[in-house]
Amino acid sequence: MRRFYLENDKGERRSLQTANLFFCHPDGLGYADSIDYFESEYGFFNETNRMHEQPNIVGDLVFFKDHYNSYKEFVDWVYTAGDLKLIYQPTAQRELIMDVDMERQSLSEKTPFGTLETPVSFRGKAPFYSRNRQQIIFENELIDNLMQFNFDFPFVFSQTGKKYEKALHITGQYPAAFELFINGPCHDPVFKVQKQQDGKLCGLLNLAGISLKEGEIIHYSSKPNAAGIWKVAGEHRENMLDVLDLSNDNFFRVPHSIDVLVSLAAEIDAQHQETVKHHLTLHEYFRG
Predict the structure, then answer these.
(1) Domains of the chain: total
(2) N or C: which end of the chain has fewer CB within 10 A?
(3) Least confident of 136-140, 152-156, 162-166
(4) SS3 assignment, position 115
C-alpha cells in the first residue's frame, strides 16, 4: 500500500495513515504542463510555449477519534513545522519528496459514520525529488602530491590536502540540485562536478581563502527555490554570498542521464589527527 507522510524542518515525520488519521482520495500526484499552440494550417498545430504547472495535491484527511481535538493538534503541528515536505511512497522501494505549503484545510461536521473529513490542499514549490545522500570522509592520513586545478586561478593543494572523488549517475528527469555540508576544521575547500567521459567542467564552487574552525559548518544549497551559502556555528547562521566569485555560476546543478565525477578537496592542518566527515545530498527530480 502506498504511504504518505509530512516532514517538518527538523526532519521529524508525521504519518498520514494511522489508527486515527487517514489521507484518502489523493489527487494531483502526477504532472501537468501548460502548452500554447498556433494553427499552421487547416487543423495542424505547432507548440509555441510550454511551462510546468504548479503542483496542487488535494485529498481528504479523515479523523476517526477525538475528532476536533485531533484536528486542532494536527493544525498546530503544521503551523509550527516551518518548511513542510510531503513524503510519498508509491512502493516500499521508492520514496518521493515535495516541498509544499499547506494551502487549505477545511473543517465541517462529523459524518453519519462518525468520522471528521477535512478536505486539504498542498501547493507544491518544486517537483518531486528523491534524496541521494553521500558521505564524504577525509581520513587522517596525509595524501602526498594531491592535485592541481587547471583553471585561470593559481591553486595548488599542499601535502596536507585531502580529496574525495566519486562517480555518480543522476537518474532523475531534471538536473539535480544539491546541498553540501563542509565541516571544520579545514580551509580552502573547492567542490567541482565534471563529466566523467571527457573531464569537461559542469560546475565549480571555489571557497579558496575560507577557513573553518572545529564545530563550524558551511551549508551550501543549489536548490532553485532555496539557493544560498551560509556559515553555521551552533545557533548562529551567517550569510556568505559575499565570498563567492561572481564570475562563476555558483549555484549550479548536476546534469542528469550522464556519468559525472564529483570531488571535494580542502586543506587540513597537519596536527589534526581525527577523521573529518562531510555530507553531500543530491536532490534527483522527477515529474511524478
Answers:
(1) 2
(2) N
(3) 152-156
(4) coil
Q: Classify 72 as helix, strand or coil.
A: helix
- Residue 106's domain comprises 3-125
For position 70, which CATH number holds?
A: 2.40.30.200
**What burial letters (b/e) apply to 120-152, b meaning 16+ CB within 10 Å?**
bbbbbbbbbbbebebebebeeeeeeebeebeee
State the pairing for strand pair 161-169/259-267. Answer: antiparallel
In a shared domain, residues 142 and 48: no
Alpha carbon distance 97, 5 (integer Å): 9
Of 26-30, 33-37, 272-276, minimum mean pLDDT range: 272-276
Half-sphere exposure of 12 (CA within 13 A, CB side): 7
Q: Which three cell numbers stand for residue 281?
A: 545530498
DSSP secondary structure letter of residue 54: P
Task: Give this prediction's pTM.
Answer: 0.80
